[in-house]
Amino acid sequence: MKKNNLKKSLIKAGSSLLIAASVIGLESSIAYASCKVTAHYYRDDKTYDGYSVKMWDEIDTEGTGQISFTVNGDEAIAEYEAKDDATQVQVMIKDPDGNGPEGSPKSVDIDGKDSVDIYVTAGIEAISTDGFKDADGKDIVLSKEEETTKEEVKEEETKEEETKEEVSDTEAANVETTTVANAGSSNAQKDTDVGDDSRFEVGGGSVVLFDIVVIALVAGGTFALASRKKK
Hints:
Number of domains: 2
Structural class: alpha+beta
Order of helices and strands: HEEEEEEEEH
């Protein structure tokens, strides 16, 4: 009896340990998953040439060096993939001379998050994770003109080429139609000219034949008169 109770106790204890280990493993995988960090930078003058951002975490202390910004509308953005198990990311803006115009690095909590957006406004020490803020903490509204992608540019160029080809084909068809029409008109004119010449030739032959007949009659009459006079 005691042995059975001992077995049941061991089984229960083992099951509890397995469940606890599974829960801990699940929590760890969720809490320390890799996090994608997107840094947004805004300047009043909209000038971002030469500006970059350095980002790193407690696992990857070297970070990615200086990441060049991509201008998107009125803001500039850059992305960083934090290492697994990282809980914080450091962000520091660099100007063209390599200095930090926005002060010391900013620390951002990424624990348990799949992605984090960081907003840094020029001249403002504090950073935000829910949009750009001015010195009073009020939202800064930006235009959201999306950057034209290479695919869109390629599609636009393809459409332009297709349009040019269609125009070219239409012009060629018009030229061919005009040529055929001109050729038909020329042939019709030739047929008319030939008909006129034929009528002229027939008319001319009739006139000549009539003259011969008249001359013959006149000659016959003259001959008959002359013969009567001799008698």
